[in-house]
Amino acid sequence: MTEWHDAAAADALSDDEVMGLSIAGVPVALFRQEGAFFALHDLCSHGAARLSDGFVENGCVECPLHQGLVDIRSGAPCSAPITEPVRSYPVRVVGDRIEIALNR
Amino acid sequence: MTAMPESEATYVVVGGGQAAAWIARTLRAEGFAGRLVLIGEEPHWPYERPALSKEFLRGTGSVEAITLLGAAQAGEAGIECWLGQRVTAVDRVARVVTTAGGRSVAYDTLFLATGGRARRLPGLDTVPAERVHTLRTLTESERLRGALGGAKHLLVLGGGWIGLEVAATARALGVAVTVVEAAPRLCARTMPPVVSGWLHALHEANGVRVLTGTGVAGVTGTADGIAVTLAGGGRLEADHLLLGIGIEPEVGLAAAMGLALDDGILVDAQGRTSDPRIFAAGDVARHPNAFAGASLRLESWANAQNQAIIAAKAATGGTAVYADIPWFWSDQYGVTVQMLGLPGLGTRAVARGTPEAGSGCWLMLDDTGIVAGAVAVNAARDLRVLRKLLEDGRAPLPDAWTDSATPVQRLPSRPNVGMD
């Protein structure tokens, strides 16, 4: 059964913004794209960098260390040097709160 | 250029480093279905070099963590890797590559990613070889790590990025370090004085003895180490000597082939050399750089990767050109410093935040008011937004740059052109 964790207020992010969270000890980068929310594991699959410190543009987040691009919606690698996907987590909005599921 | 289908063509990559790996990987990603041979002089599978002066040297890294193209991946992608083999000749008429071991392969398209070789000092013949180090390869990093394990004092000759990163790693390992630099300041080739001064203070604060403006008259062996005689008088003794005095681009093969050279192999914005069947990329290639308005040969991780990708795409019919603004980074004592553009050409520094205290970014303007580059200390995001501005031909107003309460993307900007 999916366990949802309270993450943030639904108005805490604007489009193309990202925030770093710790959900039950797991680092999570929470994004907003065109009004919808997406969550990725907050660690680049190439180097030890926080994606929540990255640069958001055109639906991708760019790792602040090596400039590799990750698709915000899927976690798929979009440019060198990233070749492995980043884990993405389900997100839902309940009332004015954003919730994230870590197990799936 | 060639009438035969690509699936029957043979593409050969000379070189076994980061650029070579990205050429091979990109060729397959772009659908090249012919024979693909990578010939590397080092015995290792292609790897990234930045960790060699940091985590890997310290002993907290691994070969696996830095490998870019391993045996399994090469096998899956159908990339033939001839490792530990040196190419000795390329016949451009017959289009055949020959190795020292006598193997040969005919090519339709050739890539040269031969990198560079760490510069050495003349007159070191009398110094015990096991006391003298350079740092370019994985093997050299392992050798230096072994030496640092039993060392009390390391002498670093050359206050550039490699020398300073090794100094920082050696300090973390509890080794005393002296850095001797002939120029009046550290990283003088690429950095403005304000950054040199900050690096100097950073290293001294971490216990490094830094001697700038100090030439070396000679190096000799002692009973249990080395001794350096300074040009201005004085003598320094240490257990080991690291030469961090730059690299020489490995152009021997290209010279013998008659390709156009100028401190490196000359290439166009797609990595093509003076022979249209031959591409070059990485540390060895000198490319026309749009941001600089000049040709540059860059010795950086980003250049090795991204120039290689463009060259491989061009060889498979791509039209993209390499137009990146120069960018690189260094990690020392837990501080990440990132450089954008050509900050060394700036004559006026405008600080955002307090980079000298560990968080901020210097914007570097030249005499005409053009932003030549920037140097960020633990401020990657600011630098990234600045890159976006510069890519669009714009620059923040210098007076606004100091307003660290306002995000860089909201600062007023103007076209990045001269004011006079």
From TrEMBL, chain A:
> Rieske domain: from which residue to which, for each copy?
4-100
**Which key words tag this protein in UniProt?**
2Fe-2S, Iron, Iron-sulfur, Metal-binding
Q: Which domain of life is it from?
A: Bacteria
The protein, known as = Non-heme iron oxygenase ferredoxin subunit
From TrEMBL, chain B:
Q: Does the keyword Ubl conjugation apply?
A: no
Map out region (Disordered) in residue numbers: 400-420
Regions that span the bilayer? none
Where does the FAD/NAD(P)-binding domain start and stop, copy by copy?
11-308
Instruction: Give a single Pfam family match.
Output: Reductase_C
Name any cofactors this protein relies on: FAD
InterPro entries reported for this sequence: FAD-oxidoreductase/Apoptosis (IPR050446), FAD/NAD-bd_sf (IPR036188), FAD/NAD-binding_dom (IPR023753), FAD/NAD-linked_Rdtase_dimer_sf (IPR016156), Reductase_C (IPR028202)
Domain Reductase C-terminal: start-end pairs = 327-410
Q: What is this protein called?
A: FAD-dependent oxidoreductase
Species of origin? Azospirillum endophyticum
